[in-house]
Amino acid sequence: MSQSQRLSQGGMIDRSKPISFAFDGRQYTGYQGDTLASALLANGVRLMGRSFKYHRPRGAIAAGSEEPNALVQLETGAYTEPNTRATCIELYDGLVAKSQNRWPSLEFDIGAVNSLVARFLPAGFYYKTFMWPASMWMTYEKFIRKAAGLGVSPVEDDPDVYHGTYAHCDVLVIGGGPAGISAATAAAGSGARVMLLDEGSEYGGALLGTSDNAAAKSYIDSALGALGQSENVRLLSRTTATGYYDYNYITALEKVTDHLGPGNGGDAPRQRFWKIRAKQVVIAAGSIERPLIFADNDRPGMMLANAVGVYINRYGVLPGNDVVVFTNNDSAYQVALDASAAGATVTVVDTRRNVSADLKSKLEQNNIRLFEGHAISSVQGGKGVESVRIMELSADGESLQGQAWEIVCTCVATSGGWTPSCHMFSQSGGKLKYEESIAGFIPDSSRAKNSCPNVSAGSCNGVFTTQECIAQGVEAGISAAGAAGRSGSVPSVDTFAVNEIPQGAIAPLWLVPTVHPVGEGKAKHFHDFQNDVTAADIHLAAREGFVSVEHLKRYTTTGMATDQGKTSNLNALAIMANIQGVSIPEVGTTTFRPPYTPLTLGAVGGQESRELFIQERKTPMHEHHVASGAVFEDVGDWKRPWYLPKEGEDMHAAVQRETLAVRESVGMLDASTLGKIDIQGKDAVKLLEMVYTNNWQKLAIGSCRYGLMLNEHGMIFDDGVTTRLGENHYHMTTTTGGAARVMNWLEEWLQTEWPEWEVYCTSVTEQWAVLAINGPKARDLLRDLTDIDVSKDAFPFMTMREGTVADVPARVYRISFTGELSYEINVPARYGKHLIEALTEAGKKYDLVPYGTETMHVLRAEKGFIIVGQDTDGTVTPHDMDMDWIVSKTKEEYLGNRAQARVDTRREKRPQLIGLLTEDPTVVLPEGAHIVAEVLDKPPMPTIGHVTSSYMSPNAGRSIALALLQDGINRKGETVSLSMMDGTVHKAKVTDTVFVDKEGVRVRG
Amino acid sequence: MFIINCPYCGDRDQTEFSCHGEAHIPRPTNTATMTDEEWGDYVFFRSNPKGYHRERWLHDHGCRRWFNALRHTVTDEFVATYKVQDPRPQIPGDGDQS
Ligand SMILES: [Zn+2]
Q1: Which helix (H) or strand (E) is A168 found in, with range?
Q2: Which of A457, A432, A426, A463 has the alpha carbon at shortest distance from A446?
Q3: What stretch of H or E contains A19?
Q4: Disruptive mutation site among B24, B64, B86 for chain A (greatest number of A CBs within 10 Å)
């Protein structure tokens, strides 16, 4: 059965280049220029997949990207891609594809039993059946996903490379058919910088599917040749405009090397994602044929009429030797003629009774039978159509009558008319209008969005002959170029005519009647093939009140599959309109959303993947930490040493050792990541007074002060130490994660509320490398390296001194986040590595231990120092933190002041920060564990608080925890219960938050 | 994705900016005497018009300046962008300056 349906001649395939490929494990041969679908059809393969819900046998109905049925799993392993449309896959040697939605095989599918129980799978089935109990959804879901669902995602890393790129142009032309080519030619001729995109491998659009495509090809080649010569034109084939966004921002997916097969792209990326900003856009996206909806209209062999023409003329494939053309308009007559010329026995069934004498005589000349005023009443054949029965339509089109005629056929070419592709125009914010004469929606240019200047041309604008399309294209190209400020001499553009029969007087028949009312009897009338939605489902939705188009869509899932209802949306709207007895525009349309066709996430990500996905921030000491064997933690974008294990140590052991060492000898932490803001200007102190809760007027030069920042809700959002460096000069520190937020906060108030203040804020986070040394031996260590007088009296707690450390200029702040004698040594960033190396060397005799963020957390928790964002969560006031001491009672105003007086922030029983000591000192409570008011058999239990920080503290000799507890400050001394996920309950005593050195002696030592 | 005319830098892509809601809401100077309702109104309540809207933008990834814009929330047209201290531009078709 080798290419039994391949015509002996014709088509635009290269017969000198045979290509072998595999489908469902069988080897086939096609030709260069084939798609997977055309090659399968050439080999007599009509059955290409099973449907989503009912697992009905399906074949390709289209020849382009609107295809709903022929979705395949392309390639295997890491290269596999699900849901690719066989009609868009260019054939390459060694291609491997599998059908989807079938088990164990395409021919015999267990899931097809769904077809037999279809009565129980109506629209809204999932909603109704699986609404309750929610817990059972988990169980159902597994089965549903296995039985339905589309293809399978790869589990391996994507081996391909993708690029993203930006482009600007005067005129972007979307679509490279006759309208688009002529628009690009006209615009380029006017001097505009032009981009022309087409989703196909070749330009020409519908011309490629006509019987005189050889002549068309030379017309196209000459136009494209001229465009290619032009320096200001960029041609992108295999490129689909996927999204149209505000201000003429268009995204497009270029399939650069997909057509070569996996791994054969060489240095080129697999796909390129274009982000284009165009002054003007010409939309020449073409139109899509609609199927007629009749009983069992989904059997393999059923095709859109134009697709049959494309397979014959472009690919040299006759989809069936006996063809029935079923239509309600004139355009399909050309397909009947083409099929007849290709050797098929052809019968035309037209729902109309007024077929023109001209068409009739054309059919007669070619021995094509015609049934006027008839319709298909039933289809025979399961895995492929074997015959159809036709009956006469009643005059009102509402019923069938008379005798049924049986016509043997293997292909039904059906046309319900043409739907202009308004996706791009609609995405740009434009509104559509219904055009009775073509029975379809077209762009309403009077209701376009001003910020998205565009013009539609060709069949997406409702004109269907090649010459009309070319004329509109030329006009659009010239006007777009002019609007973009390019109005050079208006060029003349050649026109061209092909063998085509325009749609003519269409007689809409949105749902072909059957002998049974819709929904009764076994037959199904599909409009959305990919989501298996039938006319009966729309009737059901209407009966149940889901008549709004947005409700209809979600209830039946019509138009929500990966094809977004390209062939089905208008039919669905029309059926609903009929049910309600209103016009189609009264039903309205749903919103078109990007992407136009599915696109890979890889392409969207482009080169910003793997190590380029997020910029890693590393401190100037990073290399030293790596050499020291540090394990790193991500803090924001920073890489910070988390802990530094010695040989054989796990995290727990390392952290316990580091934590003890800091309080016994001296520890060293890279604190370079702390946010640092340099604040200068005569009003600098006014700013501090406003953004912090405490007083700053009397801070002496060279002194440091801790501050809390509140937002206007009165909630803590950052903290840090600020030092007065000079008369009007301050150095503010922030949390590592809050650095950018605080900088924005200061600038916002300064620029918008107090622009007259003279204050200048500069982020200096990366200008300083900071090493904190903490512990009883910190002073001895520092003394060995500095010219600063470090004696207790000369350099007291909460002051700053300038001098040199390890022979480099330094600011040393005597501040502490550990409760130990501490110095934070700041040196210009370029000396960071030098500083840590010098300290490491000098620290040997003091048993200096480098430590990481985890140990820092334990040390600060031992002292009850909060971490904003861990012990606070945006709902916590200073009072909740038991930090009334830092809130000024004398300042008239500061940010967050008023909110603290609100009824809610003043109410009793707010959660407050307290310490917790478990009855069993070895139990380390999980952070997030709930304190419950009463222990019940099972959840839910009334909760009165939760643990925010919890560690094993070697210095306290037991576990410690911080928690937010309702009315916590008044509960000190009480015992509370904490309920764990596994059902166990821990008891803990409520304490204050300081677990080590309660008197605070060490820090002042 | 808008193109926004920063009053300091000129036309730039929207990705460089962030929007911070309604403009021209001064921080009250009498916070101590405000009722909870009045304070709540300042902190939480904003107009949400279908139509012209004066709003604050920040050119984050550019000059880092705050400025105001008069934008139509349906058509997304920017009628004007202006510096914080500049007078409010007139709403098209609107006689008064409010
Ligand atoms: Zn700017």
Answers
A1: strand A162-174
A2: A432
A3: strand A14-23
A4: B64
Tell me the CA–centroid distance for residue A325 and ligand 1, in Å.
62
| A17-57 pLDDT per residue, tens | 999 999 999 999 999 999 999 999 999 999 999 888 888 99
Once rounded to an integer, what is the mean pLDDT over residues A185-206?
Answer: 96
Alpha-carbon span A440 to A669, nearest angstrom: 70
CA of B68 to the centre of ligand 1 (A): 12
How does pLDDT run across A308-340, given as a tens digit for each residue?
Answer: 999 999 999 999 999 999 999 999 999 999 999
**Is the CB of residue B20 less than 8 Å away from at least one CB of chain A?**
yes
* Chain A partners within 8 Å of B21 (Cβ): none
User: Going by DSSP bridges, is the β-strand pair A729-734/A675-680 parallel, antiparallel, or unpaired?
Assistant: antiparallel
Are B84 and A752 a contacting pair at CB < 8 A?
Answer: yes
Could you tell me the CA-to-CA distances from A617 to A383, A632, B61 in Å, in that order?
Answer: 59, 12, 18
Task: Give burial (CB, 10 Å; 0-12/13-18/19+) of A475.
Answer: middle
The 10s digit of each residue's pLDDT in A108-136 is: 666 665 555 555 556 665 555 444 445 55
Question: Which of these, A265, A252, A259, lies nearest to A603 by C-alpha position?
Answer: A252
Taking CA atoms, A121 is separated from A539, A649, B65, B97, in Å, by 14, 59, 58, 60
Question: Among A356, A295, A357, which residue's Cα sits nearest to residue A326?
Answer: A295
Least confident of A506-510, A858-862, A925-929, A993-997: A506-510
**B12 C-alpha vs ligand 1 centroid, how far in Å?**
8
Tally Cβ neighbours within 10 Å of residue A438.
21
The secondary structure of residue A854, as a DSSP letter, is: H
- The enclosing H or E element of A691 equals helix A684-691
pLDDT above 80 (res A142): no
Considering CB atoms only, which of B60, B65, B77 is closest to A751?
B65
A794-844 per-position pLDDT tens digit? 999 999 999 999 999 999 999 999 999 999 999 999 999 999 999 999 999
Assess: ipTM above 0.85: yes
Give the A:B interface size as CB pairs under 8 Å.
56
- Per-residue confidence (pLDDT) for residue A110, from 0 to 100: 61
Residues A191, A489: Cα–Cα separation, whole Å:
8
In sequence order, what are the beta bridge partners of A951? Answer: A960
Please state whether the peptide bond connecting residue A133 to the residue before it is cis, i.e. omega within 30 degrees of 0. Answer: yes
Interface list for A 803-862 with B (CB within 8 A): none
Among B47, B51, B6, B50, smallest CA distance to B23 is for: B47
Chain-centroid distance of CA A869 in Å reads 28
For testing contact with chain A, the best of B2, B22, B31, B74 (most A CBs within 10 A): B31
Report the C-alpha gap between A69 and A49 in whole angstroms: 7
Classify A795 as helix, strand or coil: coil
Categorize the per-residue pLDDT at A522 as very low, low, confident or very high, splitting at 50, 70 and 90.
Answer: confident
**Token code pair at residue A749:** 């108030």
pLDDT of residue A591: 81
Q: Which of residues 38-97 of B touch A (CB under 8 A)?
A: 39-40, 43, 56, 58, 60, 64-66, 75-77, 84-85
Find out whether A299 and A379 touch, Cβ atoms under 8 Å.
yes
- Sequence-separated (6 or more) residues with CB below 8 Å from residue A517: none
B30 reaches A (C-beta below 8 A): no
- β-strand partners of A345: A322
Beta pairing partners, A662: none
| Collapsed DSSP state (helix, strand, coil) of residue A497 | coil
Task: Parse chain B into domains and list their residue ranges.
Answer: 3-28+39-82
**What mean pLDDT, rounded, does chain A reach?**
93
Question: Contacts of residue A687 in chain B, CB cutoff 8 Å?
Answer: none
| CATH fold of B3-28+39-82 | Folate-binding fold (3.30.2270)
